[in-house]
Design goal:
The complex is a heterodimer of chains A (about 120) and B (about 110). Chain A has no helices and 11 strands. By secondary structure, chain A is mostly beta strands. In chain A, the strands form 2 sheets. In chain A, strands 2, 4, 5, 6, 9, 10 and 11 form a 7-stranded mixed sheet that branches. A 4-stranded antiparallel sheet of chain A has the order 1-3-8-7, with no helix packed on it. Chain B is an all-beta fold and about 110 residues long. In chain B, the strands form 2 sheets. In chain B, strands 2, 4, 5, 9, 10 and 11 form a 6-stranded mixed sheet that branches. In chain B, strands 1-3-8-7-6 form a 5-stranded antiparallel sheet, with no helix packed on it. Chain B is globular, with a radius of gyration of 13 Å. The chains are: A mainly beta (about 120), B mainly beta (about 110).
């Protein structure tokens, strides 16, 4: 049973550039959420995708955008990168349209460094 | 909004028992999660509590008191591999079903 996968593992960009991160959910899951985790902090919710639409969004600027494909995989795009965007980006998958019992399973993350 | 508080760091001895506390304040409550995260890795799911009481799963147990806004994660027979960050996450009842994470407790297990 394939778990959540993310690519790339590590990425180095410079300020002002754009980046795309990718995520494939756990087999059987249809919902993907993205989180940003700065060093020493807990994950901060960016947004969630279900049925190819953004269902919910956290407190992140419009520079952060995403997409979900028919096979449930997802992309996170960040434009005009800032130094403060350096973090571990986590993708989490779950099953269902927000039922209270669903549990999120995380991928290994993408470590983004902005220079 | 939500406010989640957990100790920043704890140390314990191999073979011992450690209790990691989490207190929270939410406008409504719809479940509490505990995750384990080793350095540089993804969080892995440990437990989920939505009703008061103790949930036991092997060496790990999680307790919840909704009236007190309080939970703890109990780790027994500590092993060196238990050295990790433990994240408490709370989901409110506002319909979002998105958990809010605390900053995590870094547990160091020494011989």
């Amino acid at each position: 049973d394939a778990g959540v996968t993310q690519s790339p593992t590590h990425l180095i960009k410079t300020r002002g550039q754009q980046v795309t991160l990718r995520c494939s959910p756990k087999s059987g899951h249809d919902t993907v959420s993205w989180y940003q985790q700065a060093l020493g902090q807990g994950p901060q919710f960016i947004f969630q995708y279900y049925e190819e639409e953004e269902r919910q969004r956290g407190n992140f600027p419009d520079r952060f955008s995403g997409h979900q494909f028919p096979n449930y995989s997802s992309e996170l795009n960040v434009n005009a990168l800032l130094l403060g965007d350096s973090a571990l980006y986590l993708c989490a998958s779950s099953l269902g349209a927000g039922e209270s019992t669903d549990t999120q399973y995380f991928g290994p993350g993408t470590r983004l460094t902005v220079l | 909004g939500q406010n989640i508080d957990q100790p920043t760091e704890m140390t314990a001895t191999e073979g011992a028992i450690v209790q990691i506390n989490c207190t929270y304040q939410t406008s409504g409550f719809n479940g509490l999660f505990w995750y384990q995260q080793h350095a540089g890795e993804a969080p892995t799911f440990l437990s989920y509590n939505v009703l008061d009481g103790l949930e036991e799963k092997g060496r790990f147990s999680s307790f919840l008191s909704r009236s007190k806004g309080y939970s703890y994660l109990l780790l027994k027979e500590l092993q060196m591999k238990d050295s990790a960050s433990y994240l408490c996450a709370v989901r409110d009842s506002g319909g979002s079903y998105i958990p809010t994470f605390g900053r995590g407790t870094s547990l160091i297990v020494h011989p």
